[in-house]
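user: Please supply your own:

assistant:
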Amino acid sequence: MSKVEIYGIKNCNTMKKAFDWLEGHGVAYDFYDYKKEGAKEELLQKAFAAHGWEKVINRAGMTWRKLPDDVKAKMDETGAMAIALEKPGIIKRPMTVVGNDIHLGFSEKAFQEIFG
């Protein structure tokens, strides 16, 4: 299997579920914490290309809800990139990279499909 990288925030409940699943299934991974390392623009560009900014940005989360309504109404790919780099907590978690594939979010079913 290709190297596995997982991006997110360590104390996020969804991240904890993903970590538990990976560890319980013996999947080795490298973790990158947005709070400590920030978001990587190159990775976000790839995620936007693969999934569209609308899916990469977590519009159900607290960071999105705290944005002013006018900012949310005018959001586009350029604005989404800027806000994701400034406030990486707005990025859907986890972002899991396996080889050239980028996966968003966590569910046991999706991880089972990804990691077998």
